């Protein structure tokens, strides 16, 4: 536990002690319980953006339902647990445990007579290393025909007041930069400090479908994602935008030996036959394929997509991969999921303590507005907020996203120095991971001197000087 989180926890514990027997006792208890949980990361986006497919890829298991059904209309939490369990929480009434589907997928779950519109959320416990550091939350699609379904996602992601149900961070999927996407991100961004660029990652989803799944689809998607990330509107709402081919990613995580064998049979066909099959989806399914069943080919298209099939057959035919595990790794790497997973680990999970502390501080602040605390606790709370340099860094990152001219001499390194791209010292300084201690110290001293000059520049504006002083303190902390 970081020092900031430990001090915040102490305040929450003291607030809970003072609130015993009052109406806010359960609210403060919820704030404290949340601090002991992994970081909550919600996966959001418009209908059919590929949210559930991406979640399955991150978990490495076909858990979330990907086809339209009752389950996809419910906010569903996936968390690490000692046993397989599904709990359903109605909007009115006690929680109910559901029978865990034998298939392992929620697509076949029985809601035991509960109407989806009367369900607050489902919580799925699944023993998983991938879920130890983050609880993933699958949300119904924004822009759904049902306003109630869309409202459910918006309520989770933009909670008002001391709600303990919101997300600490968001992965927002988009296929194109739609006006609704910008509207949602702006709503999340404006919610009492909850949504900020530093804890929102945009994903250009279904990247393999760009340009009708041409061989250069992912290259095109990478260029489009970079263009979105550089857009001034998106930059102030998202940390970055990365392309991910969800089907490829999910297949890479769950590819079976039978699927590999089927792909190997197709790869072994004569080149002319194989190339003819790959011209269109219809030809791949219906044309003669040396006795390979059309139904099996249809299932393969649904599972991997045409871009994935083309990539897999090329890899197998060329000898680049020779078994199911090698092909799975190749597809996962090609999909972009590994880059996204690393980003989640370095930019979300690595600063989980700071994000959780901020969430708790915001919740306490909202509670204190309605129920003013004793003067001593209020002073401690204010001192914590004012002295938390980690929170000041997050605020400056947001300010730089809002106004890139805040630091006129910045070459882009200020945001990195503040920990936007990773919290460890070498990443902040732009050094290689192998840099030794003397090199780190020398670089930190040079960086400190640079921002000291900026802070003391008599021609600098007050806002610029203040921002530079924050960077000076960051460098001093590194040297200490």
Tell me the β content.
5-15%
**Major sheet size, sense and barrel closure:** 9 strands, mixed
In DSSP terms (H or I, runs of 4 or more residues), the helix count works out at 21
Distance linking N and C termini: 19 Å
Question: Can you offer a commentary on this structure?
Answer:
With 480 residues, the protein is α/β, with parallel strands linked by helices. It has 3 domains: 38-245 and 338-351, 3-Layer(aba) Sandwich (Rossmann fold); 255-326, no CATH class; 380-479, no CATH class. The chain contains 21 helices and 9 strands. Strands 4-3-5-2-6-1-7-8-9 form a 9-stranded mixed sheet, sandwiched between helices. Helix 5 links the parallel strand 7 and strand 8. Helix 1 runs antiparallel to helix 2 (25-35), helix 1 (3-19) runs antiparallel to helix 16 and helix 8 (246-254) crosses helix 12. The longest helix is centred in the middle third of the chain and has 25 residues, at 294-318. It is globular, with a radius of gyration of 25 Å. The two termini are 19 Å apart. The model is unreliable at 159-164 and 191-195 (pLDDT under 50).
